[in-house]
Structure formats: C-alpha cells, structure tokens
Amino acid sequence: MSINFKKFVPRPGLVNKQGRLPDPAELVCIEVPKVFDQCLIKRCLVYCEGPDTETTDCELRSDPLINPKRYISSRDFKITLLSVDKIPLKKDHGFKKIVLTYIISFYANYIDCDGRTKSEFYEINRTDVIGKFYCPDSISQSTTTLEEEPYDNNLIKLEMVADVLHGEILIDDHGDDVLDVTLGYYIIVKCELVVQLLV
C-alpha cells in the first residue's frame, strides 16, 4: 500500500496498548546529544623515572618537601582534554583510530613534623590510543555567530573517576624528602553527536 504524501501528516503512533491517546497539540524538533560509541580506559600508575608506560609515570613524584611526616589523602581530581586526533580506518566506514592527549591534576595532602597539613600539586600528561572507535561524521553542518572557531558536531567527551591508592614519603637520590603516589583511574571515552528528534 503506497503512502499518499499530499494527505500524509507526521504524528506519533500508539503510545499504550490499552487505547489511543488524542493527537498531539504540537510537534517540535529538539536537538540532543546521542552517544554513538564509548570505551573504558583503566590505569594504575606508579612513579618511575624515564618515559611513561601503561603502568608508570615520571610525574607521580613531588618536588622536595620540608619535614614531611605522613601522607593523608588526595582531592580535587580534574581531567583536561588537550587534543583528539581522528584517523579514519579504510576498511571500516565510520570507525576511526583515536589518539587522546589529556592532563590529570590533583592535590595530595600530607602532615609535616610540626603537625600542619600541607598540599602538593600533581599534574600528569598522558596519551592513549583507541584502535577502533565508532565515530561517524555528521551529515549536516552547524555554525554559530558566538564562536570564532568552526563548531564541531562530533564531540569526544571524557568522564573520569580517580583516586590515589597509596602515598609514601621517601628520600630520593639527592637526599631530599619526596612523596610518591600510586594513581588509579577510570576514564570513559564517549563519541557524542548532536541529533534531532521529533517529539
């Protein structure tokens, strides 16, 4: 049975199985972010000199401290996405290789020998690669007069849960007191695309 487009009126179908609701008084189109793909990055990092690996990071050691006594806790975890490189995969349409560069920052609290609470700031730079990630290109292009840069409909979004699992006061090779921490974190990487829904 063919559709007569002259008499066709877009409207929702049946909402419940018991009966029919009246036709809507208004149909509107809204824009909402839709998650097309997501993946989980989980790491447990300890301090180690040299280049960073999947289990070590050279920035997890503090600057020299004055009379530290004991590590207490950590606070104010923050993640900042610096860059995203999307490399298309030839054989898989819509899939891309994603290279993420981001910074995780936080404060570690410790007590000195006089009983005062002090804080040390940590900032670690990380790069992760996701080999295959569904990240389709938007068909429509959007722009706004409020932004100087072109508006990107296709967003890569990071959500993080992090904590310092262990903190230890040590003496480094120069004879200074330092605080080494073990950082554990989960990062959810999401590909979001703004889509239009008729409601």
Q: Tags for this entry?
A:
0% helix; 199 residues; mainly beta; single chain
Question: What's the gist of this structure?
Answer:
With 199 residues, the chain is mainly beta. 0% of the residues lie in helices and 59% in strands.
Number of helices: 0
Number of strands: 7
Overall geometric form: elongated
Structural class: mainly beta
End-to-end distance: 26 Å
Low-confidence runs (pLDDT<50, min 5 residues)?
none
How big a fraction of the residues is strand? over 45%
Helix content: under 10%
Main β-sheet, spatial strand arrangement: 2-1-7-6
**Rounded average pLDDT:** 85
Question: H/E order of the elements?
Answer: EEEEEEE
Q: Could you give a short account of the major beta sheet?
A: 4 strands, mixed
Q: What radius of gyration results from the CA coordinates?
A: 25 Å
Report on the architecture of this protein.
This protein has no helices and 7 strands. The strands form 2 sheets. A 4-stranded mixed β-sheet has the order 2-1-7-6, with no helix packed on it. The chain is elongated. The two termini are 26 Å apart. 14% of the residues are buried.
Describe the protein's topology.
Elements: E1 29-47, E2 56-57, E3 68-88, E4 95-112, E5 117-134, E6 154-171, E7 177-198
Parallel strand pairs: 1-2
Antiparallel strand pairs: 1-7, 3-4, 4-5, 6-7
